[in-house]
Each structure stands twice: as C-alpha cells, then as structure tokens.
Design brief:
about 425 residues, 7-stranded antiparallel beta sheet, 6-stranded mixed beta sheet, about 45% helix, globular, binds zinc ion
Length: about 425
C-alpha cells in the first residue's frame, strides 16, 4: 500500500530497515540478476551521460524501456533502472564530477517486484525472465515490529564481501492532529525558551533550557588557537591535526546529543499539549548571528539549524504541525502596546509607554504567539479566537508589574 499525501502538505516519515539476508537455496540466479542489473545500469548511465541533456520521464521511457524488457527485465525493473541511472548522472554533474562508474553489485527494486512477509521474515524477489528468489531476513523481531503499520515502497539489494544485504524503505503517513495549543520557541545563544499558550491566549507552560553553545565555543576557540599557533603546519603535522580533530569530534558529539534530546523533549511536550509549534525563520537567525563575533556566527547558525531540524523531524513523526515565522521585532516590541522596549537590567526589558516589564526571552515567545494569532485568526484557520491577544492582557501574562507569571513558572533545565 502506498500512503497518499495528506491534504495540504504531505506529512510522511520515511525510514530504512537494513538487514542481512540469506537466499533459500543457491545464490546463482540472484547474483546473475544483480550483475545484469549493474551492467545494464552502467550502459544506461553512459548513454544518458553522452546525451548531455535533461531527459523527461517520457523520453527516458522511449529510449530504454523496450531494450530493457527485451533483455528480460520486468516492467518496473526497467523503470527503476532508467530513473536511477538518470539521478546518478545528475548528481555527478551537479557535483562537477566525472562520468559515474558503478562498482557495487546493487539493485533498487520497486514494490511491484517483491513481496515482503514480515510475519515469517521472508522476502520474495521477482527477477529477470520470471525467476523468483526467496530470501530469509536475519533481524531480531523487535527491529521489525516498529514497521508493522508502515507501508513499504522500495528496497535495495546489495551483495558485498560475500554477504547479502537488503534495505527496505518504509513510509508512514502521519495525520496532523487538530491543534489545541500553540507552542512558541525562542532560541538565542544562551537559552532556549518555550511557552505553551491556549488558543485563547492563556500561558500554560513555560520552560527554559540552557543551550550548549558556550561549551561548543570553548572547543572552537581551542581549535582556532592551535591553528593560529601553527598557521603553516597544522594541516600536515599529525599530532597537531589529531588535536584539532579531537576538539571537532567533541563539538559534534555534544551537539548531536543535545539536539536529539531537546528535539525529543520539546515534541513530547507539544504532543502532550497538542500544540502547533512556532519556530523562528532561519533568515532572522542569520541576522541575529551577525551580532556575534565573526567565527561565532557560523557556529551559532549551524547549531540553530541542528536544533530546528531535530524538532522538525520529531514533530513530523508525531504528526505535529510546524509554522515558521519571521521573528523580526519579537524581542524588542512591547507585547501589550507595541511600543519599542528598552533594556532594564539583565535580560529584562521595559516599556516606557505602558510600564510593562518582562524577561526578554519570554517577551519573544509572547510576540511570536501574537504574530501567529494575527496571521491566522483573520482567515479563521486554527480555530483561534480573534480576540485572543486581547484576552491575554487580562490573564496575567502581560501584567504591568514585574512579570509574575514568568518568575514563578520558569525553571532552568540543564540537559547535559
Ligand atoms: Zn507597552
């Protein structure tokens, strides 16, 4: 079964299950198939390469379909071969590379040419000239169990060092839930702040997490220091290169660890509250990052992207919707009267017009929420009441005195 796009944007998760496989009986026909497949693929690649133009599906079909069928391939084998050959050529061209040479015995097989029986862990492949081969999949039950309600649409068979491997591509359509709350996330160098609002503007959760950017920066500074001390030799001397690599590895590991944990945590919470998640548009992240020191800029941006993409992936898997908003002005505009806010001590902002005082990060989340409301309440989407941000004012989120709501609710969470 193939999953169909959900109305509007398609929400689907794709994951591959890679397992070893053993044919029941001999390898002969399967190896013959793989060799044929790869030889022919190379020929098709060569031909497309020499044509030097972008071919439509129709043209590809016309050029190769009959030839491939005559050799003994099934209809969908033929399709997979020319479509895949073209994508190989295209990616080689866009990387400015040479004509691709295929060295591995591997074949992509469409769902019409295999049968997958997860109960018995048996895969039946349809080969050339109506041959069939049955493969036993060698994987523990737990690994497969996860995919029971997913659909699969394609697989890759690979023969390498005397072993046979199969990667089955699974897909799961996720149905977006009707949102009940809105989660706004503000990310800056030191903190990640998230606030959950009901659709009529009541703040129900407020959390703040430390980022690990300072930690990452320390390693980055070490790297720069080493490079500065040995400007000529750091690339060539093994010991120096190793030292740099060690810091690079640390950066990768701690950020991988952090972004996955935070992605999980945020989306679990959003799932629990049935939230739409608002993320800041990356464009503004670029602008914000401009203010940092020169080499921080790239690093900060890279880190923000990692966090966002983890949140995005996890949200997709849970069927949660994400909306990106341009956060321009969100940390400098008074959420009560829209005047410009001024600094009032450490991370605190004040409005000289209406005397509103609030934490900078919390102000940003309130403004993100308000932006979303004003964008969507007009067209009646989301079921948001048009008065939502007016109602907010009477509910303590925007009290004029020092922001009680935030003082009482913010906890500092440390992840690492
Ligand atoms: Zn104000």
């Amino acid at each position: 079964m193939v999953s169909h796009p959900v109305r509007g944007e398609e929400l689907a998760v794709v994951e591959a299950l890679k397992v070893r496989a053993l044919p029941e009986g001999s390898y002969d026909k399967l190896l013959e198939f793989l060799r044929m497949y790869c030889d022919v693929m190379q020929l098709v690649v060569n031909e497309i390469w020499n044509l030097n133009e972008k071919l439509s599906r129709k043209k590809l079909h016309k050029l190769f379909y009959d030839k491939l069928r005559k050799i003994g391939f099934r209809a969908h084998h033929a399709k997979e071969i020319y479509v895949y050959a073209q994508s190989i050529v295209e990616s080689a061209r866009s990387n400015g590379g040479k004509k691709p040479v295929l060295r591995k015995l591997t074949a992509r097989i469409d769902k019409y040419d295999y049968k997958l029986d997860l109960d018995n862990m048996v895969l039946t492949l349809k080969l050339h000239n109506d041959y069939e081969v049955r493969l036993k999949l060698l994987a523990p039950r737990e690994r497969v169990e996860k995919f029971r309600n997913w659909s699969n649409y394609e697989l890759v068979v690979k023969y390498e060092n005397g072993e046979l491997w199969v990667s089955v591509y699974f897909k799961k359509a996720v149905k977006p839930a009707k949102p009940k709350t809105i989660m706004a996330i503000d990310l800056n160098f030191d903190n990640l702040t998230l606030a959950v609002f009901t659709l009529n503007g009541r703040l129900i959760r407020l959390k703040r997490f430390k980022t690990i950017l300072r930690k990452i920066l320390t390693h980055r500074i070490w790297i720069e220091r080493i490079q500065k001390r040995y400007p000529r030799s750091w690339r060539n001397v093994k010991g120096i290169r190793k030292a740099i690599e060690k810091h690079g590895e640390r950066i990768k590991n701690i950020s991988w660890d952090y972004t996955h944990k935070i992605g999980d945590l945020i989306t679990d919470l959003a799932f629990k509250h049935n939230s739409i998640i608002i993320l800041e548009d990356l464009e503004k992240l670029r602008e914000n990052a401009k203010k940092g020191r020169r080499f921080n800029k790239k690093l900060t941006l890279w880190f923000y992207r990692r966090v966002q993409s983890c949140v995005e992936y996890e949200a997709k898997e849970r069927g949660l919707r994400i909306i990106r908003l341009n956060p321009r002005g969100t940390s400098s505009t008074c959420p009560r009267c829209s005047s410009k806010l001024v600094e009032d001590g450490y991370r605190t902002l004040r409005c000289n017009t209406c005397n509103f005082i609030g934490d900078r990060d919390v102000v940003a989340t309130i403004n993100l929420y308000k932006k979303l409301i004003s964008k969507y309440s007009r067209c009646g989407e989301l079921g948001v009441s048009p008065n939502a941000s007016k109602q907010m004012q009477s509910q303590g989120v925007m009290r004029g005195n020092r922001d009680e709501a935030m003082k009482n609710h913010i906890k500092l969470y440390k992840l690492i």
